[in-house]
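Reopening this one. Same input as before:
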Amino acid sequence: MDYPKDYPHAHDQDPGAPIRFGIPEHGRVPKYYAVKARIAALIGELGEGGLLPTERDLAVRYEVSRETVRQALRELLLEGRLRRQGRGTVVAGPKLEQPLALASYTEGVRRQNRRPGRHLIGLDRFPCPAALAADVGVETGDPVWHLERVLLADDERVGLESTYVAVSRIPRLDVDFEPDSSFYSYLRDHVGVAFGDADERIETVLATPREALLIGTPPALPMLLIHRLSRDVKGRPLERVRTLFRGTVSALRCGSVTGVRRQAVGLSGCSHPPPIHCPRNAPVAATNRSASSSHGKCPAPG
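Same output, byte for byte:
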C-alpha cells in the first residue's frame, strides 16, 4: 500500500515517535500501519480523554475494513495511547514517569502532580534462604521480612513491588509501619536508616497470571521490571526490591546520576537473580499481616 499524501511525516510527528512512523524507503507500509498513523494524528487532535469514533466510523473514514482498524487500535492500546472506557475508546493521558535517579516511588509520582498510594498484599516473616542472605546482609536462616504492595497513582494500579529486608534492621515493621506510606520515609524517620546507593537491573518481562490480576491488566502483557539492591549510607546491604510496572502506563526516566549503577537488558539473553527457596514447612511468624495470607509459605521474588 502506498502511503497517501496526507500521511504524517517526520517534520510533524511527535519527537518520541519512530522516524517517519516506520515508513520504509520504498514508501510502502502495511495497510493497518497507515491507518494506525492516521489514528495517531487524530489522537493528537482529540487530546486526553477525547472519545474516538467507532470502529465502523473509522473504517468508513479511512476506506478500509473493520479488521484493519481493529488491528491498528490493538497496537495503540498496547502502547498505552488509547484506553477502553465502557463501550468506547478514549485517548489516554501521559504515562507515569518514574525517575530512576530517585529511590522513592512517592517522590517520583508527586513530581508529576499525581497522588501516590499503595495497597498491601502481604507482610510476611520467614527464615532467610541462602540466595537472599548476602543481598540483605544476614546469615542463612536469619529472619527476613517480605513486603508486597500494589503501587497506585491517583488510585490507578500501575505496579507491583516486593521488598526483602532483614528483621534485625527493622524489627517493628509489622507494628508501626503504615503499608500505604513510603518505605524509605519510614526507614529515615522511624528507624534512623538513610538510603545510600543501589545497583539496578532493568528488563522487559511478561506478566504472570497472578501479577496481571494484582496489577489489573490482561495476562502476558509486556512489563517493565526493575531489580534493586540497596545499601545504606555506610555501604551496608539494606534491601532487595523487585518492582514491576505496567508498560502501557509507565515510562522510566534516566539521567546522569551517581550512586545508582544500572544494567538494562531485554527479553532475551537476560540473567535473573537466583530464585529464593525455603523449607516446605518453614515457620512463619504469628504476626503475619496480609491481605491474602501466605502462612507456611516462603514468598518468592519472581
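So the earlier flakiness isn't reproducible anymore. For the record, DSSP finds eight helices and twelve strands in the chain.
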